Amino acid sequence: QVQLVESGGGLVQAGGSLRLSCAASGRTVSTSAMGWFRQAPGKEREFVATISRSGSTTYYADSVKGRFSISRDNANNTVYLQMNSLKPEDTAVYYCKAATSRSAYEARSRGAYDYWGQGTQVTVSS
Question: How many CA atoms are closer than 13 Å to the CA of 115, on its beta-carbon side?
């Protein structure tokens, strides 16, 4: 089992920055690619970024490429999402995901053994 707790969300003006954190626990974290997804009101949950188990490989949605950066600290079982140049369209609930025994590439989509956090709200005002 994996437990995920997100933090760092909040209200920020357009052009500002936020850093989300995801604290992970459980024996399978070290074997899991990790990712961030988001869900805006009335929309489906969408892929934002994923990172491999070693942290050497990352993938980003086109909408956040060049503005967001995903990283992980395996010693502390934490995954981060640095969000810069935020836009109102980035407003959503952001979810952390652990994709057990999957690559960062595979983790961009839903899997049968994915674990999710409870989400953290990010609101970007114009």
Answer: 21
61-115 residue pLDDT tens: 999 999 999 999 999 999 999 999 999 999 999 999 999 888 999 999 988 889 9
Q: Residue written as tokens 């652990």? A: 98
SS3 of residue 90 by DSSP: helix
Residue 37 confidence (pLDDT) above 80: yes
Q: How many Å apart are CA 4 and CA 106, to the nearest integer?
A: 19
